[in-house]
Fold this protein.
Amino acid sequence: MAYGLLYGMASRDIVLCFFLAAFLYSSFGQAMPKSEVQPEFLALLENHTVIQGRDVSFTCVVNHLQSYKVAWMKSDSKAILAIHTRMVAQNPRLSVTHNGHNTWKLHVTNVQPNDSGTYMCQVNTDPMRSQTGHMKVVIPPDIMDLDDSADLLTAKENSDLRLRCRATGTPKPVVTWRREDGRNITLRTEHSVQRVKSYEGEQLHLRGILRQEMGSYLCIASNGVPPTVSKRYYVNVRFKPLIKVSNQLVAAPANSDVVLHCYVESWPKALNTWYRDDGMKLLSDEKHVLTELPLNDYAYQLNLTIRRLNRDDFGSYTCAAENLLGKAEGTIRLQELHLTRTTSVPIRYNTEFIDKHGPKKQLERKGKHYTFGWEGGSLSKNSGNTGHTASVLKRNSSNALMDVTVKKSKVSSYPAPAPAPAHFAPTQQNVQNSVTSPRQHSRLNCVGLMFAFLVIVICSW
Ligand SMILES: *[C@@H]1O[C@H](CO)[C@@H](O)[C@H](O)[C@H]1NC(C)=O
Ligand SMILES: *[C@@H]1O[C@H](CO)[C@@H](O)[C@H](O)[C@H]1NC(C)=O
Ligand SMILES: *[C@@H]1O[C@H](CO)[C@@H](O)[C@H](O)[C@H]1NC(C)=O
Ligand SMILES: *[C@@H]1O[C@H](CO)[C@@H](O)[C@H](O)[C@H]1NC(C)=O
Ligand SMILES: *[C@@H]1O[C@H](CO)[C@@H](O)[C@H](O)[C@H]1NC(C)=O
């Protein structure tokens, strides 16, 4: 009765083994085979890599077993699991089967990490014969919920933000970070800025975070065992609103519709308002249409459409954005665009009379009418006035012309306009008339300008 098991056994196992030996002896001891043919294994015991929770079995094929017995052991713990078709281990997840011929199987259901190890199929010959197979239990990655790590993270602009992601699994998972939209992650140190597609590590330290880095970040844990898991962190960057106004001066003719634009950056989202220079807050109504078009996580376009412009609509408009961190404003001046047609002398001036501080100058002359037309659709293009005051107006010059006759008495009732700053002064007068000669033009120009000057002087006096 040499099972060869006693060597190196723990005392508990020895007791167990003793009982086992006694049992085996009483059952089978008398019938020990005397044959010369010895049992032999027909195949190696397999090795298994199995995902936790799955079922697995080892198969032991023995020929010429005769009256010898097959036993299953776990080599590392030296525990006898089963003998023949009887279970010895008190483990409901283990079972053995025999196909009635030469094949014995050890089944393990709902495999657990502590099932990993070396399994042995053994025959009680003298000396005993055995073979071994390994079981490796792997666990798919999982991302732990850390108490101090919310998935919605907020930091003030230029401050530091740390994203933490701890993953479990066997083998130990690798944690990588990416931006959900595929943009690069910005990593700053004291001396450098690095942009990387992905970053490996349980902690992603975003130093001096900027608004452009706002958005979804993914922590991805993988260890080769499917499925790979990820967790999304939404990063918000708080900052004071910013407003940009590309056209600070807009000119449009009466009765037309005009759209004023403001570009806003803000997080948290700002409360946006439009108001007029008289302090009146604008609301959407039949006269005004207020829209907000989101451009990204923190920027949007504010449009104010003013319908059927009338005299009262010209003036300053302010767009304002306010959040918890502050307030920003942008002001747009809306001016009337005068379009007049000549009756006696058909001269067209490409002239922009723009005054930053006062209303548009009223130019008038008794008996003669000048035409101020827009060529090419853009004030800045022809007038030579460039910079931030350039207004864009798309209009066909020939059908935009209209008669404007201003009486002198009416003009004098207007407040005199302040002198235009140098860079807003009419800089160019393109005379584009094929009827009059260049000399006539210059003379007419001269007369016209002198007259205009006189009017201004009289008015301001
Ligand atoms: C099982 O793995 C061991 C080494 O880990 C190797 O010697 C043996 O041949 C493997 N068995 C099979 C059936 O591949
Ligand atoms: C193995 O792990 C399972 C589940 O974690 C547990 O129920 C069982 O008692 C463990 N078995 C041993 C031998 O440690
Ligand atoms: C993003 O990072 C990759 C390397 O990770 C680099 O090759 C690429 O140029 C970066 N793109 C930008 C726009 O910085
Ligand atoms: C606001 O104006 C911009 C620029 O003209 C335009 O592209 C956009 O469609 C407008 N948005 C809305 C909501 O009207
Ligand atoms: C302007 O309008 C007139 C008639 O309405 C047309 O004949 C002319 O082609 C237009 N010019 C441009 C530049 O659109």
The CA atoms of residues 440 and 446 lie 10 Å apart. The chain is about 10% helix and 40% strand. The pocket of 2-acetamido-2-deoxy-beta-D-glucopyranose (ligand 1) is lined by residues 44, 46-47, 134 (CB under 6 Å).
